[in-house]
Write a structure and sequence with these properties.
alpha/beta, Rossmann fold
């Protein structure tokens, strides 16, 4: 299941609002591989052994056949904190890590602070998508290396983000009508670390709390329940699968890209690497027309054969039909 980040998807463009769809697809398929943008709900989370939490860069490499996934019962989740985080906010994040250890039994540590502020910058593309930059990527990579050297087998990173770079965009997002302005920069951070370290990674932004808004959209509400967005990241990474080079991947229980039975993605956002890699190998592509976004990169634009679904409930039915060996064009199923 792929829902690209920072493109304003009606489902999956907010705070873990694609989780119900992921749970349904996991039940229909028996094994769902998806990425943090689908599953992260700030202070909320949902654990399901049928769902595998795989960062976007690693998901692309898995779909291309370069990586295999080794399901893990437990990861030791190390934590990288941006030097730019103010002390009260830093303390809140440390307390989240302590709470996940004490209340959920997660293995947390080591904790490393970057040697200098990361300097996160936010921006917007001409299509309306969000993107971002880092002034000190080397400091991020060196901190990640220290975590792995200290025994961390997965990596959560918290970077200090600008609080309100565009009040209008933030207000639209909180009211359920905009694009997540943080998402593009978050993807830059997690992709960079996953590629460099080869371990499961995910990111949570550090932000000052916002004043209560009585018009808040429920899809954005999960981000406003606590002081940090870190809990879901620590829980997701605690059982994220190990990343194994495909050439060295042998033995039972490993997941390989050539085992994929279907890929489910928004109908207008089919241009990502994972989706195109699956399409190239003939994996059935289920395009959810009901999940609109600011992009219009659909099957017709790309010349790809797709099976359209109006909703994720319909997509789950199509996944179940494929799993049972039923032809989707069968009249009784239409």
């Amino acid at each position: 299941m792929v829902v690209p980040t920072g493109v304003g998807c009606r489902v999956g463009g907010f705070a873990g609002d694609a989780l119900p769809a992921a749970r349904l697809l996991a039940a229909a398929s028996g094994c769902l591989i998806t990425h943090p943008n689908v599953l992260n709900a700030a202070a909320l989370y949902w654990s399901d052994p049928r769902i595998h939490y795989v960062e976007g860069w690693a998901l692309n490499r898995f779909a291309c056949g370069d990586l295999a996934l080794a399901p893990a019962r437990q990861q030791r989740v190390g934590l990288v904190l941006d030097r730019a985080i103010e002390e009260p906010l830093r303390l809140r994040h440390l307390q989240v890590a302590q709470a996940c250890g004490a209340s959920l039994g997660l293995s947390i540590g080591p904790v490393v602070t970057t040697e200098e502020p990361l300097g996160v910058g936010l921006g917007w593309g001409g299509s309306g998508t969000s993107w971002g930059s880092l002034q000190a990527p080397g400091a991020l990579l060196r901190a990640g290396e220290k975590v792995v050297e200290g025994g961390g087998t997965a990596l959560a990173v918290v970077a200090r983000f600008p609080d309100d770079p565009d009040g209008g965009a933030l207000e639209a997002y909180r009211h359920g009508a905009g694009v997540d302005g943080l998402a593009g920069a978050e993807a830059v951070i997690s992709h960079l670390l996953s590629h460099h370290l080869g371990v499961p990674c995910a990111h949570a932004p550090a932000l000052a709390p916002l004043p209560p808004d009585p018009l808040l959209d429920p899809r954005a509400a999960a981000e406003e329940l606590g002081h940090t967005f870190l809990p879901c990241v620590l829980v997701g990474l605690s059982r994220a699968p190990d990343l194994v080079a495909a050439g060295a991947a042998h033995g039972p229980g490993l997941l390989h890209g050539d085992q994929l039975g279907a890929v489910v993605a928004p109908a207008g956002a089919l241009g990502g690497e994972a989706v195109l890699a699956c399409a190239e190998r003939g994996v059935p592509l289920i395009a959810v027309t009901g999940n609109s976004c600011v992009l219009q990169v659909d099957g017709a634009a790309l010349g790809l054969p797709v099976v359209e679904a109006s909703s994720y409930a319909e997509a789950a039915g199509q996944v179940l039909a494929l799993r049972e060996g039923l032809a989707l064009e069968t009249r009784a199923l239409r």
